Amino acid sequence: MDAYSSEPVPAERTPHRYWALAGLLCSFWVVGLLGLFAARQAPIGAVRGRLVAAETGRPLAKAQLFLAPADASVPGRRRRLSVDAEGRFHLRGLHAGNYVVSASSQAHRLRERRITIAEGETLHLALEMAAMNPFLDLYCPQRVFLPGEPVQVTAHGFTRAEALDVETFRLDAMRVVADAQGSLWRVLAPDNPRQWGQPEQPIPLRSIAGLTLVAETRVVPPRDAEGVFTRRIPVPAREPGLYLVACRADGIERLTWMMVTDLGLITKHVGRDETTGPACLAYAVDLKSGRPATDAEVAIHQGGQRLSSARCDAAGLAALPLPSADEEALVIAQRGRSLAFVRLWGGSGEAARHRVFLYTDRPVYRPGHRVAFKGIARVLAGEGLRPPTPGPVRVEVRDPRNTLVYSTETTSSDLGSFDGAFELSTEAATGSYTLLGELDGEQHEHSFAVASYRKPEYRVTVRPERDVYTRGESGWFEVEARYFFGAPVVGATVRYTVMRSPLWPWMERDEDASLEEEDFYYGDAPGEGEVIAEGEARTDARGRCLVRFETTFRERAGDAQEAFFEPDDYDYRYSVEATVADAGRFTADGSAAVTVRRGELAVSLEPEWFVQAPGKPLAATAVVRDHAGKARGGIPVELSLVRRRWRDGAFTLAVAGKATARTDAAGRATARLRPPSPGDYQVRALVRDERGNEIPASAWVWVTGATEAAPLPSGASLRVVA
């Protein structure tokens, strides 16, 4: 038998097979992770495009583009960006979904447009921005010029007319400062004594007495790409006097004024002595040299009358007694053709006998700190001051809630000074504190602050779902708290308050103006108004929570007649104030506001007359537009005339007439209503939008007869005693 076996020997396994298997497993693992990541990755898209002017097709380089999610299903935030010099924009990394895009510039606007961004695609947009209504502003950065000094005004605007018509007038300065009580507008609009500020309608300046045309010219200003101009215009006003400049284009007139004079005037109330009473001390100065104007004459005018006058002494000073009437007066200084004037308030009243200066060693303190205070008192002695006789001084300190936190009585020194100190409580409320010092029955005060400052660790941002709602819709605000290093504030307590306040039109609107202009309205500031909801929530893992609110207008308190008599004739501002408190009890605030409109239309009412005789037809015109300012034709309008009667401290209402009309192509609907008898009437117009929202407007008309008196609530009476 052989010593060696005949069985085959197996081949040796090499390590290459193990590496191959490991690589294959790693490949499957990587592919799986990539698939999982892709499955969890939000769908992303992009948008790019260009903004151009609709009327010229030229790019709008200064435009701002706004992009916001159209609904809550699309994550992300509202974006704003400036386009480049060619009007182009490109936004990447946007979540796929529906968005609302809009844009604005100095003179162009793109209304909100809904777009859809698809996953993995770039949406290309060509957006044309419509021109806004023409506007024109005229500025005079300096009101007073020396004789011979160059005078310029600046015109800024956007007009269809290429040229500006500019006129310069010289005014009778004494008529303005004396007869019109210093009001230029009372001279230009004498039929409206309450006029304050430039009238909206052009004024026939050449027909006004006291205005002399100095120069007229046409100016063609250079414009930028969208047609906006800013141009300095020289004014031929070299001689002393008061000048008015008028600039006109596209039916718009803007006015400004300036005074050319070498005379300056400063006034001060002083107590002359116990016999003559309070006086006005006037100081006239030469503006060119800075020396006293020794030859200037100073006079006080009140109610169109010259009450007193005096000539300045060698120091440029003149003292005149204050008018006894408690109303506005003018102090006028005149030297040659140069003029200067200062407003003051007449009425001597009971002048204080002391001047007390209170102060603390610091303007702001923390709770628990020591507050040191000091006071210095002086007695008014003619035109000078002297220390008072030493006597008792009572000192009090009150917190922001007017709670007394410190009180003491001390004695003033021979020099009229007193001082003291006290400790603030460690639990002292923060805010403004008042330090009161009472001397001989006169009370004087000073304020200081108590603050407990802590460096903020996070900030609170409140974002509305959208900026504008229509009545009846539900909306929400998103409250987000995020640390400054980027992490969300998780599980924080959010206390919120939702408020609403009415938005009232503050001026008559141009018929072509857009209703989207923000400064068309005024009302309470954000954070003020009627509280409609309060609550508490917690932030989620992203540091966010939602605050929902309803925009249904609640019925006004009172009976049905009052609700009928005073309908909601205005839109509302809804605002939310959110206070977030983290686990360490540190708080931070945030707020936001939206506009809630009564409906998709806007209506205004224009009665033919506001005062008229009974039985005479009264034409009432309702104007209906959408919120872009476009007239809406074919809209039914209900017009009614309601009579109010007062009796026993209450009123009753009766419908005196009704009519129905339909708006024409200009959005106007007119009906004639006939008030049957004298009295107080309300004219009402009511339209309904496609959602069924009722949108009212109202105006008042007084119908007077030969013996009819104005209606007054009971208790108001007038008796003539012989």
Largest sheet: 7 strands, mixed
* CATH homology superfamily name of the largest domain: Macroglobulin (MG2) domain
Structure class: mainly beta
Low-confidence stretches: 1-6, 506-524, 555-567, 707-722
Gap between N and C termini: 165 Å
User: Kindly state the mean pLDDT as a whole number?
Assistant: 81
Give the number of helices.
Answer: 4
Helix content: under 10%
Overall geometric form: extended
CATH architecture of the largest domain: Sandwich
Indicate the CATH topology of the largest domain: Immunoglobulin-like
Spatial order of the strands forming the largest sheet: 3-2-5-6-7-1-4
What is the gyration radius calculated from CA atoms?
37 Å
Overview of this structure, please?
There is one protein chain. By secondary structure, the protein is mainly β. It has 6 domains: 44-131, Immunoglobulin-like; 135-260, Macroglobulin (MG2) domain (Immunoglobulin-like), CATH 2.60.40.1930; 263-345, Carboxypeptidase-like, regulatory domain (Immunoglobulin-like, Sandwich); 354-450, Immunoglobulin-like, CATH 2.60.40; 458-597, Immunoglobulin-like (Sandwich); 601-703, Immunoglobulin-like. Helices cover 6% and strands 52% of the residues. It has a 7-stranded mixed sheet with strand order 3-2-5-6-7-1-4, with no helix packed on it. Strands 33, 35, 36, 37, 39 and 40 form a 6-stranded mixed sheet that branches. It is extended and about 115 Å long. Mean pLDDT is 81; it is low at 1-6, 506-524, 555-567 and 707-722.
